[in-house]
DNA sequence: GCGTTGGCTTGATCCATGTCAACCGCGATA
DNA sequence: TATCGCGGTTGACATGGATCAAGCCAACGC
């Protein structure tokens, strides 16, 4: 059920508590680098929050685009569906990351965004974001950086898909996850995967069996300990070395 | 030898001739949708042009970023180099397309841009572009669309690399080229490849031999006629059908 | 406690593409 | 005109990962 926003002053505390200016993700997310006063202007914009239950869509390919979303908590995947039924996971997103940038180009979303665990996002109406970023230089520049970073990230994935073999891909994937958990204050060495082997495989251009075998191999070699979705990284440099195994 | 810019009024005609407002690519490029007056303000910004000879770098990975480039004429590839020596072509760019968007995120270029034929580009100082797009809403929005389109394009490549087999990839590649030539007023059915089989292979995540064999196969099947870099597409729908050959 | 289900693992086999190698053809250069 | 070299083609063979199939494990409902 949607939470109604109380109008009296007393409860505005709880509103402030969930505003950008008070969000502990602000250094990872859109507000990076803004002054206090600028932050408050951004708060006005980011007023709508939305809960998305595990398995539900945040948006679907083809739907009209009018907002991007910042993940407050939880975990998402995005995937693209081809006419012939093939699909591929194009990314996994976690708290502090933005979803929906692909929709700007055509005013329609071009992929599906699906929650992999119960999640909460902040909706950022895009035209209002453009308006504010015409006024706040820092916001404008940071937003451009975020879009550009997405492009660079995609190039990394292209590299992975184009030049790496199965085990290198999985090693790169684990190291990437580990690094992103670390910058969110979680353990770099121990985490739960939110996605299935099949989803990992789809993202990495591999079949689930190949992913599973690679996990087993890494475990045999003592690089990681796997128990279903629970991963412990035992030997970071070992994984890094795996990534350069050239063909 | 660099062409010196004359200062007298008489020759300013030739300057106008090469401004955005008079550029026949303006409907494909950054100026899309701008009014005449806005166009003239953009002209001020896009004052530096640069010739890049076949084989030369427009920029290199690691170099400082301060401008994006619009291709006036010619053909480029971008590639990324991994520490271990592997590299991959991340894209081919033609007239009217923008180069360098990846540099915004870190203020450094993250890939190499190399001319595949003698080319000419317009340098667009990025901070001035941000300035102008704070004033011209249409420009801002269009620029965002261009960046977003790049993200969507990259997802398409990820899809290609992750789910398609060799012949599907090549078919998709040819159809994409054909479509882009068409929107530039060239024949959709006949064109010269600017890149080698190896570069195509690198882009598509294939070895050059595989690319070559796929070309031969397409020719045998009557979909195209190949003679080295000269391609004629004989059967568009045949190629499209090839793309859905599922595995 | 028992069956069901979805996700995961593992083995056996197959095949698309990589690898290695020979050769071709065209343009550049002497 | 002869030679060289690079890019392209083609063939023979090797192999990584896909495919097919069986079985395992943990969570969950009955």
Any overview of this molecule?
The structure is a homodimer of 247-residue chains. Chain A folds into 2 domains: 12-160, Jelly Rolls; 164-242, Winged helix-like DNA-binding domain superfamily/Winged helix DNA-binding domain (Arc Repressor Mutant, subunit A), CATH 1.10.10. Helix content of chain A is 40%, strand content 23%. The first copy, chain A, has helices at residues 12-17, 36-45, 126-135, 137-163, 166-182, 197-204, 208-220, 236-242, and strands spanning 48-52, 57-59, 67-81, 87-94, 98-99, 112-125, 190-192, 224-227, 230-233. In chain A, strands 1, 2, 3, 4, 5 and 6 form a 6-stranded antiparallel β-sheet that branches. A 3-stranded antiparallel β-sheet of chain A has the order 7-9-8. In chain A, helix 3 (126-135) packs across helix 4 (137-163). The first copy, chain A, is globular, with a radius of gyration of 19 Å. The model of chain A is unreliable at 1-16 (pLDDT under 50). At the A-B interface, strand 4, helix 3, helix 4 and helix 6 of A face strand 4, helix 3, helix 4 and helix 6 of B. The structure holds a DNA duplex (30 and 30 nucleotides).
How large a portion of the residues of chain A is in β-strands, by DSSP E?
15-25%
Low-pLDDT ranges of chain A: 1-16
Number of helical elements of chain A: 8
Rg of chain A, alpha carbons: 19 Å
**How helical, in percent, are the residues of chain A?**
25-40%
Order of helices and strands of chain A: HHEEEEEEHHHEHHEEH
**Structural class based on helices, strands and sheet pairing of chain A:** alpha+beta
Oligomer: homodimer
CATH evolutionary superfamily of the largest domain in chain A: Jelly Rolls
The mean pLDDT of chain A is 91
Distance between the termini of chain A: 54 Å
Largest sheet of chain A: 6 strands, antiparallel
- Largest protein-protein interface: A-B, 47 and 47 residues
CATH second-level architecture of the largest domain in chain A: Sandwich
Q: How many E strands of chain A?
A: 9
- Count of separate structural domains of chain A: 2
The CATH class label of the largest domain in chain A is: Mainly Beta
Rough shape of chain A? globular
What name is given to the CATH topology of the largest domain in chain A?
Jelly Rolls
